[in-house]
Amino acid sequence: MNSSSNTGIIELDPSKSFLCIILEYSHYIAGDRIIGEVLMNALDNFSESNLILYSSGCELLNVMTKYKKAAKYNNEIFHVVTTLKVWEYETPKGQYNFPFTFKLPYFAPSTFSVRTRDNEGNLLEASVVYEIKVALEVKGEILLQDTIPLQIFNNKTRCTIPPSVSETELSTCLCFKKGHYNLSLTQINCQHPNYYDTAKFKLELDWFNNKGQIAEVYGKILYKLQLSIPGDKTYEFTIDLCEFKHSNSFFTESNNMQTNYEFDVNLYGDFGDNVSSNATAMINSTYIGEATVVFNLGVTNRIDKITLPMHVNPKVSDGRVLVVPSDWEASPCSLLSIYLQSRTGNLIFSPTKTSIALAR
């Protein structure tokens, strides 16, 4: 398949030669095993050829300072170059299936893309990209090829985030007790939200034996980006995605008060296309929920803050849906279990003992 389209429904045309990659899922989590197939339709006999599979993950950083000084750096997460099949003399026409599998590194960061300016006016660009490519090379030239992006969630998506709870006794500067309270902030989504989704929160306040008033309740969601380029300084960007003010439900004259307030946050902005939570040697991308309560204790005010770290997964595109011809009759091939390699050429993961090597 020589089309560059990676979205929508694509019907594979058996009247044309094509090469395409099919994966089980639209996205994967670091540490998952990827299982896929390469489908090849050859209408004519070719001369000797090689069918080669490539896959890679890369972290890319680019900073352009306000003085037009550029700093670029890239870090390879893993790469794969492996031969699926060698036809030494002739490539017979026909239909072929080549199944393959490899396990993602547990440390793989999320798919990521950000482009913004910090408070100093420096242009900050960073991305984490993954892809799989297959190519049929005939006499050193690519005759057929296909490339698809990989959407990866980092392993933090497997973890749950407990609520943040604060319990404090209130008193004035003269040590007069004004009651005590419990304050909690909870993310109530059933699962970690994706970028461009909505995060849902609940702020709860239990105030007992109070002898004052709540003057104000407000909060925000803070996004913070840090880019650390080796040999250069760390560049930072922060932005408030949402800010809410007091709700009437928090204001009461009763001696004991139990109340809560739910609010939503839209997780997107003009600072990037796919700004997920990430932590690498060069990229630190974090979201934090923060709520503040201001107590009026008569002679003084008391301010208390509570924070809750969030985890935001990358958005997942719809991807493409391949419709295989109903009369597809490819000869089965053995499953190829692939070794991933680091930038230095060291193996990251080895095949399991039950893996079957492809008969070439």
From TrEMBL:
Pfam families: Arrestin_N
InterPro entries noted in UniProt: Arrestin-like_C, Arrestin-like_N, Ig_E-set
Domain (Arrestin-like N-terminal) ranges: 65-139
Highest taxon above the source species: Eukaryota
Protein known as: Arrestin-like N-terminal domain-containing protein
